[in-house]
Amino acid sequence: METIKFEYPAKQPASGRVLVGVVGSGDLEVLLEPGESGKTRVTVNTSVDGAASQWRALFDRLFATLPNAAAMNLELNDFGATPGVVRMRLEQAMELVKQQAGK
Amino acid sequence: MSDKNTKGAPSQRGRIWFEALSANGKPVAGLPDSVRAADIDLAGKPARVIAVVPDTNNRFPRARNGEVGLLEGWNVARAVRDVVKADENSTEKRALIAVVDVRSQAYGRREEAFGIHQALAAAGAAYANARMKGHPVIALIVGVAMSGGFLAHGYQANRLIAINDPKVLVHAMYQAAAARITLRTVEELEKLAATVPPMAYDIGNYAKLGLLWKLLEVEQADAPTTPDLALVRDTLVAALADILKSPRDLSCRLGSETRAASVKVRKLLREQWA
Amino acid sequence: MDKSQNLKSNSFIELNARERARSILDTGSMRELLGPFDRVTSPWLKEQGIVTQADDGLVVAKGTINGQSAVVLGIEGSFQGGSMGEVSGAKMAGALELAAEDNRKGIPTLAVLLLETGGVRLQEANLGLAAIAEIHAAIADLRQYQPVIGVVAGTVGSFGGMSVAGALCSYMVVTREARYGLNGPQVIEQEAGIEEYDSRDKPFIWSLTGGEQRFATGLADRFVQDDVDSMNAVIRELAKAGVPASLRDQRIDEFLALLDSIDTNVQPNSAQVREIFGKGVKA
User: Fold this and answer.
1) What is the mean pLDDT of residues C168-179?
2) Which residues in chain B touch residue C187, judged by CB atoms under 8 angstroms apart?
3) Mean pLDDT across chain C
4) In terms of CA atoms, which chain C residue is nearest residue A31?
5) Is the ipTM value over 0.85, yes or no?
6) Residues in C touching A27 (Cβ below 8 Å)
7) Which one of C37, C49, C51 has the shortest CB-CB distance to A23?
8) Within 13 Å, how many C-alpha atoms sit on residue B122's CB side?
9) Cis peptide before C155, with omega less than 30 degrees from 0?
10) Which residues of A touch C79 (CB under 8 A)?
11) Which domains are present in chain B?
12) What is the span of the domain harbouring residue C241?
């Protein structure tokens, strides 16, 4: 198991918290909570060792497309998910937070 | 050497301790040869001792070496419930002493087909019910206390007492099967067991979990001497006295540092409950 | 069943533990205790370098069923095979203990257990086993007051000490997808040999331990199709039924008489078990 941490610039804190996914084979759990204004902190706990650069690349790409993303604390508990599944779960989590805020 | 890797010949420990404790007792009739029960006198108080023992002629071939199988589960339940029923209108509730040396639940096709899980539930529920009705229930672990066998016969007791001996062990699964299920090697499991107390098999590590009430030093675990027997009897009597002044649930098992998470979970649940 | 119903049916099995719990409680009544954001995770998995799940794979959902206080305890079968560790076990035992306490205080509270579990989590071995003993104790206590309803829907099934927990429940509900037995097929094969139990022979395993067989042999009380509304309706019906007149584990003479009638020289098949148990055991 490996723990990897990243930080990205962000806007105002996210408006709520959500959980998606499970720590099951090929899947991951994402816990999204409001972060400190201006900063998104990412913590990845993964069962696959030695993949820090791939995680970095994934988040770099994701946040490059989201210049106005809210500040979040993201915790990912990963059990061997593919980058596609990771991305899908992250988008799902951010979409759910938006929906919550809209209600 | 403990028996965590291979099970070897059937252990006679349960029978030996059962017979030693019930030497002057009255045997309970109507049980199969694999379930022994006797009514004894313990420092002037009546008690029933129950053991599951090997029976090479058991009708169920997968339950011949002291496993808790279909007949054993249901008959232990009967031996316990008969006491509860007999004492129903009495203020004095007879003690129940489970002598534990159960190498496992029975693993077999007949067992699954005819609902061994229900048989184990019958025994466990009988002990739990007796405890809730005010009967002091004590488990005396003299050999193996393995998994479903222990859940059925002993683990519902108010107090758990074990003798400190290399052949005494408590666990959920033998190493070979555990390795297969967790996709680890036996060597890896050995290594983990050395540092992770709940994964260990020996009674010394089990004692660290805070589940045992007493761990007893005896001279001869396979052939109890007179002082051994006196020590066990005295400890049983002391356990009875301790039970009588305590709540009849299993809360006394929650004291240790090793089970800090079990305590924390209950505390937080209570805070959030209402 | 007509086609339109088929199209509308929502699978219960495809839901995760949290969604299952929500689907059983009265709409809008669910409140989760010790949820994922409380982050009470397994100290033992972490120590062994295994990724933890924020709720340790157990959902404690409080709410109402038929307007009456209830707690649903859902095991997440996808996390570590639904195995019971110290934390997940304490969540289930602790919630059942509080439910029993509520009943003693005059607040009738029932429980539903969603069992998708291989039993003890072997990385926490003896603490899992100890927690299961405490779950048994708590079920035996709570069921005196209010129903404890066990559900094995699939796809993990229920095994080990948690199938014993199922057998202690006031009522057991199964689906066709459920497997419900003491020992996992691999473990039996390991301990007893492939002639005794071939863990790869799925039809054989289903024929003895599948939900349909368990219902037909009286070891389960309801057989439900894999559909959210059907599951919800059955739970409601059982909650309303209250404490059953007799519990399966107390019918000792009846079961022993049936076991007496078995020819143990031969291995049984599904039909023989139905013939022997089918008549006698059903309540």
Assistant:
1) 98
2) 107, 173, 177, 180-181
3) 94
4) C37
5) yes
6) 78
7) C51
8) 29
9) yes
10) 22-24
11) 13-273 (3.90.226.10)
12) 3-180+220-249
